[in-house]
Give the backbone structure.
Amino acid sequence: MLKALTDVVDSTRYILGPQVAELEQQVADYCGARYGIGVASGTDALLVSLMALDLKPGDLVLTTPYSFFATAGVVSRLGARPLFADIERDTYNLDPASARKVLESLSPDERRRLKAILPVHLYGQSVDLTALVDLAREFDAALIEDGAQAIGARYESSDRTVRVGSVGLAGCFSFFPSKNLGGIGDGGMVVTSDETFAEQVRILRVHGARPQYYHSFVGGNFRLDTLQAAALLVKLPHLETWHAGRQARAAYYDEGFAGVADVIRPAVAQRQEYHIYNQYVISVSRRDDLQVHLKNCGIATAIYYPVPFHLQPCFQYLGYGEGDFPVSEWAARTTLALPIYPELTTDQQDYIIDAVRQFYGH
Ligand SMILES: *Cc1c(COP(=O)(O)O)cnc(C)c1O
């Protein structure tokens, strides 16, 4: 790793050096897309993808109310309007049936302003891509996948197995250190198989300039650092092994909670080997008390996410209220993420499982 970093320092090619292009190709290949465009963060991957759609103030983007803030934040930053639909109880992913209901209730004028559907592959598991591809087609919207937590996660459609990010017009990834493929700082990537879209993202990444100093569009500085790309090139070859380590630990937790799944309800994996388990999440009653109990046992947990978007103060102007998305609200109230990483030992997992079970008298 250090050698890869000192090579960059010695080369002085800090901005869009050859490691960026190399990583772009490797990540695109890994995901099964034609092009990769390295950007400064997962947030910028989403932002620049929506900018490449020429999103205008007043346009609509359908998304989930239950995700990391960036998913809806980028829509709002461009002056467009996030339009929420509820999630599925088993996977916490956008529910295509709820999405359909929301889209069918739009007025003809609103339908014209719908520009994108932006699902999130939450916690490392793919959404129901078949249903969402159909919806996007039917409602003439671009499908942009937020794969920030799910690089390498797979999805099985009727005729083939694909990796997330390669199905929609664009897939957006984050290399934030806590993601399965984490850099040594911020980083992100857009993957796409659409040549025109890829070119547009590449231009917007450097302030909309092509050639340099001639601006047809207003873009930004969304570049991925060469140093980050060099670090990620060292890590990428290990990613599949790390995924497998997480999958094995998720299976072990599932077993540990089998029989008490009505009390301690693990998220449902459509197929364990397709889920990359960026998080292992259980849904429980008395969640906050459990978290304190685990903390007292020396076990660190996290709540993703305590407040769904439609109840966030900054989105009050959208006019949603309590009760509008009951499954998202339930998830925000009841979910807890347990420690999961490839180095987690069986002893540690036994200790965690016992501590959780003991809290509920099992
Ligand atoms: C992490 C994350 C992002 C943002 O990525 P950054 O690299 O932190 O900007 C966006 N969406 C989801 C679902 C995420 O988990």
